[in-house]
Amino acid sequence: xxxxxLPQITPVLLCGGSGTRLWPLSRKSYPKQFxxxxxxxxxxxASARRLSGQDYAAPVVITNSDFRFIVTEQLTxxxxxxxxxxxxxxxxxxxxxxxxxxxxxxAQSPDALMxxxxxDHVVPDAEAFRAAVMAGVxxxxxxxxxxxxxxxxxxxxxxGYLELAEAPQDFTAxxxxxxxxxxxxxxxxxxxxxxxxxxLWNAGIFLFSVRSILEAFRQYAPDLxxxxxxxxxxxxxxxxxxxxxxxxxxxxxxxSIDYAVMERADNLSVVPFAAxxxxxxxxxxxxxxxxxxxxxxNGPVTALDCEDTLLRSEDQGLELVGIGLKxxxxxxxxxxxxxxxxxxxxxxxxxxxxxxxxxxxxxTMFPKDHRPWGWFESxxxxxxxxxxxxxxxxxxxxxxxxxxxxxxxxxxxxxxxKVTIDETERLVTENQSVYIPLGALHRMENPGKLPMVLIxxxxxxxxxxxxxxxxxxxxxxx
Length: 478
Fold this sequence. Notes:
By secondary structure, the chain is α/β, with parallel strands linked by helices. The protein has helices at about 45-50, 70-75, 95-105, 125-140, 185-195, 210-220, 220-235, 245-250, 255-260, 285-290, 350-355; strands spanning about 10-15, 60-65, 85-90, 115-120, 145-150, 160-165, 175-180, 200-210, 235-240, 240-245, 270-275, 295-300, 300-305, 310-315, 320-325, 330, 335-340, 370, 375-380, 385-390, 400, 405-415, 415-420, 425-430, 435, 440-445, 450-460, 470.
């Protein structure tokens, strides 16, 4: 570290959100933080990497049960070993999540510094951001609750703002007193604040000591303490995850850290940051990050005479062509396509709600169904049959299971599968197949060191995922 008197900082990564304004790429079953929206890695992996190194302790990750194995898989891919992965029984917003992390850390080190950060933001200059964090450390050690404000580049109506006690001049990363939080403004008010020069975007990133934030909760949000303390005290360790107790957790108010604590506290400081940032809150923000030339595209796309338009295809077999478009977002997935006016990108959330009301599966379910052992996707569905591609990670195994309504044919196309059918166990290699009769007890494993890929053909009267009876499961799924 640059100063041996400065302690390590424990990152607290929040990654339980669903990011519906980035539908169809971001969905409830696989939200934007785990996707590659910009660059070559997911937002979550980039966030974890950005907050790692000699100045940082192992991160605490707060997520939900559905994402726990995705979190561990992506952290493994960037060689980061978490300090704890805390599982929320249900989403209760950021205040209970931050409080749970603080209580967990308090048992180890009451004076530890914790940096609370969403895991779905883009910060191109990671080194500059780490420098800004270190600039806030002395204030946090002195008991301040430090937030990070982004130098605004436009009159944005989609962000909350921070009003500073003084103009930040050249936006040097140094703590400045905060006057107040400002809710998302209308266009006229946003323009006025941009012109005033003493307003920053609220990034929702905070640095404080465990002791200071717990004192702030005791002073400003005491009703949260009892249920969250009980949820942490009664938490159960499950396969290395820390599951908060559901009953007390359900009694915690659903409230953000801004409303619960920050807008009431009088010991706040702001570190300005002007080296680039985006919360990638909608497709317009994605366009701003990667399509400044107005011909933005991702994947197999062709843009002819397009202006300020984002074309994005997430399927190598699906060519997306735009001709003469202006201010348009077009995102193509294997199972859904979005076409929208770029200036109305935030209304995608309304469209998703409409799809949910109609019980459209694409509203929440991702084409690839990620599981702790790998993933699968449906290639074809018809009357009494379904074809899937299944990818199993090295050393991983599906549960020992049976089905009441379907039989299965497995054809290995890459790697080797170790297959159990009732009392028989055998290895099935590339270009070999095996038949699983209806009702047979069976399991598939990958004993190799490379991913194993097979094609599964299901036949039967009922082919949904709830036709699974599990007998043994190394991932302790119910």
